[in-house]
Amino acid sequence: MQPAARRHGLVLEQPCGTRGYIDPTYEASATVNHKADVYSLGVVLFQVLTGRKLVHSDDRDWSLFAKTARSHYENGNLNVIHPDLHKQTDQGSLKKVLRNSILLLQG
Between 52 and 41, whose confidence is greater? Predict the structure, then answer.
């Protein structure tokens, strides 16, 4: 155990939580790090923007979520954002929040 981990008293060797919120790169590297939390925040932020829940399925390719979110952003598609947010928030702010969610999904 590394000194920093000992100070905090808890070392996790496997990720905890719902699979869709865990950084997809974990499956390739099997290493848990701070980027998993950053990715999870991006998932939550994108869900808040769209008003949609993450689809839960054991067979789902979870990396598609980030790819889909990024595709909407790159194509300038703000229609993915919940209509109520469009009514309450200016378009420039929505673009910035969408951009930040994409950056978080990249880790």
Answer: 41
Yes or no: domain 3-105 corresponds to CATH 1.10.510.10: yes
Mean pLDDT on 78-93:
90
Q: Which two tokens stand for residue 23?
A: 């950084």
Alpha helices in the chain (DSSP H): 3-8, 25-29, 35-50, 63-74, 83-88, 91-105
What's the CA gap between 65 and 46, in Å, rounded? 10
Q: Domains of the chain: which residue ranges?
A: 3-105
pLDDT band at 1 (very low <50, low <70, confident <90, very high): very low
Alpha-carbon gap, residue 43 to 106, rounded angstroms: 10
Residue 61, token pair as written in the block: 């390719």
The pLDDT of residue 82: 92
Longest dimension (CA), the chain: 51
What's the pTM value of the predicted model, to 2 decimals?
0.74
Alpha-carbon gap, residue 84 to 67, rounded angstroms? 24
